[in-house]
Amino acid sequence: MIKNLLVTGYRAHELNIFSQKHAGIGFIQKALRSKLLALAEEGLEWVITPGQYGVDLWACEVVIDLKRDYPQLRLSILTAFSNPEENWKDDRKAYYADLLRQVDYYAAVSKQPYAGPWQFAARDELLLRKTDGILLVYDEDAGEGSPRFFKEKARKKEREDGYVYMGISSEDIQSIADDELRQEE
């Protein structure tokens, strides 16, 4: 049983999503919701994300919504360094601040601002150590992206000590979009 789950994936710009109103976000969230709902039914307690702008934060919205029906569910954002939103546009900063008010736990692995890639490596190692499995939105057939590093580390941990790897591919998301379009016809 998975009690602590890491959820991450593409950053918004890797998906060419530059607006919070982009239709693709809803399809990604439906795919996340489907997987998270099943895990919540089985006793999932914590969803932990790195809090990057994209899949991480869209997953936070899904978890916040699920907490209404699953009060045992908790949400955490563990960033690599302090103030990751510092250079974001104001609308994204406001969105992030709103989400932070609704998480159960927030911390930065490194208490200083960005200083180097070692901060991401330290964060990733901590996230993988503190969780039983990963739900990763990534599709290598669609091209390389930042989630590749999480996939490699999670697959290695899966081989070594039974870590659970679950993925959501672009095909999964496209299937949800196609189903919705058929229902609208």
CATH class: Alpha Beta
The mean pLDDT is 95
Record field, number of beta strands: 6
Helix tally equals 6
Structural class: alpha/beta
Task: Briefly say what this structure is.
The chain is of the alpha/beta class and 185 residues long. It has helices at residues 23-41, 55-66, 90-100, 118-130, 147-161, 170-184, and strands at residues 4-9, 46-49, 74-81, 105-110, 133-137, 164-168.
Structure description:
The structure is a single chain. With 185 residues, this protein is of the alpha/beta class. It has a single domain, classed as Rossmann fold, CATH 3.40.50. 46% of the residues lie in helices and 18% in strands. The protein contains six helices and six strands, in the order βαβαβαβαβαβα. The protein has helices at 23-41, 55-66, 90-100, 118-130, 147-161, 170-184; strands at 4-9, 46-49, 74-81, 105-110, 133-137, 164-168. A six-stranded parallel beta sheet has the order 4-3-2-1-5-6, with helices on both faces. Helix 1 (23-41) crosses helix 2 (55-66). The protein is globular and about 50 Å long. The termini are far apart.
Descriptors for this entry?
185 residues; alpha/beta; Rossmann fold; six-stranded parallel β-sheet; 6 helices; 6 strands
